[in-house]
């Protein structure tokens, strides 16, 4: 009766199963299922509507079928079959539509992604640290750029230019109380007080970023990994993902959060204080205010140096679980910047007779300096990445090890385009006819003008890739007919299968798209910087015609870029909401997002939260405690992104526990995406070491899958990991088993293939202590195994 009551349950219950005593009896085999990006329900994963929660919470949990809740106490009932468990983590990355606003943090996420893209290195610790330092400095420049753009919109365009112009203030009534003409000299009408009030907008943005970073860390990344001693010796191919402190970056995130928050506040303080200090330095100005202005700006410069020094300090501590915090630094640095910001507001708000706003605020040197600094950082990062790649070459690494610098360039471009486009769009909206405002700084205007030609380059490249894909699809038709000899006969179906195979290869051409886009962005960005520096120069008589043509083209591109950024912002948020609310859209739009948020925040604290800092410890704790309590073995079965989580969790296990784990991956991007773009952590040597250390590993893939692919381990005398590509579709025509046409599955429904059940059964057979299964010695790992048992574990 008690056992029957235990088996009754629903998906919301938490019913832990008692472990079986380790008395030498045959244990229970466990199959731990981990889903992929699209997410699913426990009922779908376990193929049973009645499920119970074994452990976990409403965010991520392990489920079993109700009848398997107490399986460990009844091992005799599970002699010929395993106990299936499902780890459901989709709530870590999905949510309501407001999460689409996280897409506004995309530049921060991209630069954080570049931190993990460094090439593999051997005995080059200083060079590796220099690589991480350059990426962190690039991330800091993005924070300063974003806050500076908010200052440009709020302080310059609204409080300084629009409120200081009668026509603009009358056109936008909500600005009227700031205007010295419309408000008849109201309290807020002096320029300094207008700037002080407008500073609330970038200050609120900085505070919001600080709060989101703190809140998401507490909700997602505060889960402590399993505490253990680091491996005595890091063998060949060892990856940092196996170190005890890799998934716990509490100290670094807190330190970077303090530094970036202080940088944002100091940026606002300089933007507010500089115009007042310039006015005080005029002949006949107040000596006291002049001295105070110099003092405040000097303090801001000292604060900037302190921020840079904090960012330059050593990065992550991965060899141990670092629970300590630099509390003095974390608290005092933002508070000091906040105090300086408040003093600057009081200084700027002091009444200065005769001060009137005219022209634009001096933002051109600031934005020009940021753009130049980012360009130099990208070039230096490329040199460091080239040195690392040359020391340990990897033929499969994306862009010959330059993937990180290229991605940093894209992050800086995103930040620049968003800043320039938003500033230009707000200026056009407030100016109307374009007759009474000076507009944003010249560099931001030129950056907005870069958007149309860059879009043309990307469209031409996409057209070339589409043409190549179509040609490849035509060539694939013969391969389809050869693979399905005796069955093929429907030209339309053959074309669809061939097109699916050809389209799946686009993933392998992503490095080309990134390389061309990054190179074009770097060149166009340099052109925008040169154009901004030479805008005010008057050309000679012979060059006036050329100058007029270039100037007209630039103005047209600027107007078009302004509208494109507005349209892009709307599409950005719309697609983001759809990705979080529509499962089908999430499978396409959310792939890059889930790859980016898989990695801990090591370069930018305001990046979206890392779900793996919760999911990987969850899986590690579950596997380690189950094997320790029962003495049994388990199969961890991961699809798509779930296979990456499964591999990361396996690396986190003690070596003894790792040898009790068999790994089954399908539709896995472990080598195709992660191995190529993150060679230091998922390179061939790292994956080969995982193959050696787990009990067994089998990988399934299809030629029609655009995400998953073979593991392609380097030459290894042991058994192969990859099975030959699965047949897709399962049947070409109609058969007794498939009377209706079988679909082209691509990345989904690997469980529908008979090969999945076959490989799963082989792995589970190895887990039965009463029926030991010997390892087979088959083809080397570099050659795909055949569909029979040869080459399998």
TrEMBL record:
Residues 1-28, 769-793 are annotated as: Disordered. The keyword Membrane applies. Residues 774-793 have a biased composition (Low complexity). The chain crosses the membrane at residues 130-150, 195-214, 258-279, 291-312, 333-350, 370-389, 401-423, 443-466, 510-533, 553-576. Keywords: Membrane, Transmembrane, Transmembrane helix. Coiled coil: none annotated. SUPFAM superfamilies: alpha/beta-Hydrolases (SSF53474). It comes from the Bacteria. The keyword Transmembrane applies. This is Integral membrane protein.
